[in-house]
Amino acid sequence: MILLMGYVNLNPSDVNEFTADVQNVVSSTRTETGCRFYAFTLEDARAGRMLTVQRWEDQESLTAHVERHESAPFLMKWGNRMRMDIQKYDISNERSFME
């Protein structure tokens, strides 16, 4: 299992447009094989900071997601307009937080 978590930083004036565009990506990504959880949320509009949390079954699923041709238009539009600070973690011994 792989967890990605971190921030996407934007020009604050781009936040509304990015949020609308990323919702299309979120909807389609959640149906992909190996996607366990995928979310973007606005953390600080004034700073232009979005939080992303993603959980993938394995590296192969994550790689397939990144290489999807449906992702290309989004990345072409936003690639130079966002700064990503996202970390990747390998998960082992997953369990309920109440245990």
Automatic annotation (TrEMBL):
Q: Does the keyword Secreted apply?
A: no
What keywords appear on the UniProt entry?
Answer: Monooxygenase, Oxidoreductase
Q: What Pfam families does the database record attribute to this sequence?
A: ABM (PF03992)
Residue stretches making up the ABM domain: 1-68
| GO MF terms held by the record | monooxygenase activity
- Top-rank taxon: Bacteria
Q: Does the keyword Ribosomal protein apply?
A: no
What protein am I looking at? Antibiotic biosynthesis monooxygenase
Tell me the organism: Paenibacillus agricola
**What phylogenetic lineage does the species belong to?**
Bacteria, Bacillati, Bacillota, Bacilli, Bacillales
